[in-house]
Amino acid sequence: MTRDDAAIKSLCDQIRQIAYDLHAYLAHGHLEKVYENGLAHRLRKAGFQVVQQHPLQVTDEDGTVLGDYFADLLVDGFLIIELKAAKAIAPEHLAQVLGYLRAARMRDALLINFGSPTFEIKKLIL
Taking the model in full, what pTM does it have? Predict the structure, then answer.
């Protein structure tokens, strides 16, 4: 399912606020799974369709499966959210999310880091 840029921006703004509120409530210091469960819960309460640990396959040109990934959250069938509980977002985190987008043949993702005292979120477009 594809969405226009305005709809994606609106969705990302809503998710950004929900994730920020969760970060303000829980602070940093929890395992990534706690933030995943918390964000999935709050997004569902807000009316979004959320799939946790959504499977993605990487294939070769001929369709041979080369590996499997699991995106932390898939929201409304078209936005991947990858969560981290790290000191800071690192280049390898960005590369991971871009790999997920390529594997899923999707365009939009959010990378959210709950591990820093300062809330971090990045919007990625493939």
Answer: 0.91
